[in-house]
Design goal:
single chain, Alpha-Beta Plaits, about 400 residues, about 40% helix, 13 helices, alpha/beta
């Protein structure tokens, strides 16, 4: 075996040796789901494992009490590589994004790289990033400086396929409110202005518009308030709408068309519309192709058959995407479920434990650790990653 092969074998052995601990972390997070920024148990379980593995651990970073940073330095020059851990769940739907697997795989990759880092140089970091499910924890951590000095970072998402150069789409979310006029719905309905009619007309307009939107665009929404009593003409309704697309350019073109549906509904009913679109949509993931190619080679070496991404694979969004424009990043997908098990479902939550989830966890950890070893040992790969990032990223003047 080459030196790199020997180092990778040592890393894999360290991950296998820690497998019982990693499975325990994942299973506990699955059994005791914690919501965004409330993940104190998940933080404690991960930090305990990393401390036991010899890492220096800081629990609580800046304004986020459930964030953490575990580091092990070689004392030698080399890149600083971070494995990101996500661990919050969703209300009702639990670990239906598999964050228990994401977190344990990140801890495992850190333990694997730590086994050889003193031989090869650089620094290994496990970065606990709470509040991914709508909380934007990484955005907060970025604004507070906790991604500075990192040369490359990675995390793996469980799903249906093995895709190294995966995507995550750009997204924007808007709160919509319609204000009408209350009236007795039977005695004097003509004196009312129906805010629910306005909201339903807006939803129907968006549904019709979908037929003419680019194929990568997704629009989804919920009504958060539909009225108060059926005998009262609703005078206040509200909804949350999310729009996603592969590029910021597409989002910028679609948003005015969505907004036209909202304003048209207000004009038709006489209700008053209030909404404020965020100035800056969430960015799509800037996946570093050079780094993804290295990950794919290692994934194939583990016996995983990979496939290229298509227009819609990875049609989700996350706060890793924004930070990926500041630090070279990959967020590969790893096959864990059958093709009829959708993320953000009760079925996916159920699939996030068991033999398939454990295999996904271990292969994710091993492939990340092996890719990190390549990045440290292969000066050409490191240079390619940095050159690609410099050519493709456009860094705004303000972080986050």
């Amino acid at each position: 075996m080459t030196d790199a092969s020997l180092l990778k074998a040592k890393a894999r052995q360290a991950i296998d040796a820690a497998s019982a601990t990693l499975f325990d972390i994942s299973n506990k997070m699955h059994a005791e789901v914690e919501l965004s920024f409330e993940e104190f148990k998940a933080q404690a379980w991960q930090c305990a494992a990393l401390k036991a593995a010899g890492f220096t651990v800081a629990e609580g970073l800046g304004s986020l009490k459930t964030a953490f940073r575990a580091t092990m330095s070689s004392g030698k020059p080399g890149p600083r590589i971070a494995f990101l851990c996500e661990y919050d769940g969703l209300p009702v739907y639990g670990q239906s994004c598999g964050h228990n697997v994401v977190a344990a795989a990140g801890v495992g990759a850190a333990i694997g790289l730590a086994k050889v880092v003193k031989e090869i140089g650089g620094e290994v970091i496990a970065l606990g990033t709470p509040g991914e499910e709508g909380g934007g924890g990484k955005n907060i951590m970025h604004r507070e400086g906790f991604f500075e000095g990192i040369d490359a970072m990675m995390l793996v998402y469980p799903g249906m396929d093995n895709i190294a150069h995966s995507r995550a789409v750009g997204a924007i979310r808007v709160q919509v409110d319609y204000f009408g006029k209350a009236a007795h719905a039977s005695a004097r309905p003509e004196l009312g202005i129906n805010a629910l009619d306005a909201l339903l007309l807006a939803f129907n307009g968006i549904s019709a518009l979908r037929q003419q939107l680019p194929s990568d665009v997704r629009v989804h929404s919920i009504i958060t308030k539909g009225g108060t009593l059926p005998q009262v003409v609703p005078d206040h309704t509200s909804a949350t709408i999310t729009v996603r697309a592969n590029t910021a350019e597409t989002l910028s073109k679609v948003i005015p068309r969505i907004d036209a549906c909202l304003t048209g509904a207000a004009q038709m009913t006489g209700a008053r519309l209030e909404r404020k679109w965020p100035e800056t949509p969430g960015r799509p993931l800037l996946s570093n192709f050079a780094l993804a190619q290295g990950f794919e080679r290692n994934l194939q070496a583990l016996g995983r058959k990979t496939r290229p991404r298509d227009e819609l694979s990875g049609a989700w969004s996350g706060d890793t995407s924004n930070v990926s424009w500041f630090v070279p990043t990959i967020q590969p997908q790893m096959a864990m479920t059958a093709r009829d098990v959708p993320p953000h479902s009760h079925e996916f939550h159920a699939a996030s434990i068991g033999p398939a989830a454990e295999a996904c966890l271990l292969d994710s950890a091993k492939a990340m650790a092996m890719t990190a070893i390549d990045l440290i040992c292969d000066a050409t790969l490191l240079a390619e990653m940095k050159a690609e990032f410099a050519a493709t990223s456009v860094t705004p003047p303000v972080r986050g």
